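User: I would dearly like some help making sense of a protein record. This is the protein in question:
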Amino acid sequence: MANLLNYNRRRINGYVKEFVAQQHPAQDYNFACIYRSADYPKERQVFVVEIGERRYALKVDTKSAKTERLAREFETLRALHAHFAKFEKLDVVTPVYMSPSGEFFVTGYLDNRTATEAIYEQEADNRARQVYRKAGHWLHALHGFEPITTEKFWYDWMFETLAALTGSRACPHATPEQYGPMIDQMHWDVRRIEGAEDTHVFSHGDFHGRNLILGAGVTYGFDFTEVTRKLAVYDIVDFLKTDVFRPASPDEIDRSGLIVKNKAMFFKLYRHPINMDVLDFCMRARLLIDWLSITTERHDRTQFQQKKFDHLHSRLLLAFEHPL
């Protein structure tokens, strides 16, 4: 668990006391920080609160009284909690309490593995594939929360991001000889999907595997601060990119850079129509952006970044062997 900063203890203790007074008056409690935002460490944190044998998650954003960021998320969570009640094996974390201050809210706490942890840890391929199946099932339910429409696929932002990364003073660890042909191929491939339309839905906005909890027979989603309407493919790409850390032989990888069987398992229960040309193009772009985001300084700092760089490079080389 992350260490709780001393200067913040009194503020957080006040939040916890407020919640306890509302829900469990006169009971003893403990709390500990389990997450602190890398970008906003003093403002955005999550705590586990223990009251007797009950445990809760308390989410803090000290600026939210003005931005209403947490209030919007809590209302979304309440609406989604009602929506997911229609599904037997799917759910979201239970909303419990929204502070009148707007600076924190409380949900149920789930002490189970995330989808990312399960994908990384499962040695047996068939067991790991079940994680993809559960993730596809949960996302299918979320994407059905609001009416489904279609919208044109816009790709300019991808090339703008690639240009910014390769033109930055904080140069990517990859060399122009390595990434240049890939970007050229992206420009060529996009002609195939020029003007394409795809499924447009209510989206999670940050659907990586650490925001999906695998409970006992139930899959739970959480962290809805980035919800928006956009192409469904972006949530799918955000989740499936975790696949690059799974071991695989070259003949198991398709043009998206993903393991064919894992990708197929995700779509076993995700049934909304998806343009696979758009998906595979977006997947390549996402992996390329993530790869080029690893600067030499980041690469040399930790073994994890070195491992990530190598895995992404390997998958990209295999992906670009196949025409879009």
In short: The first strand starts at residue 29 and ends at 36.
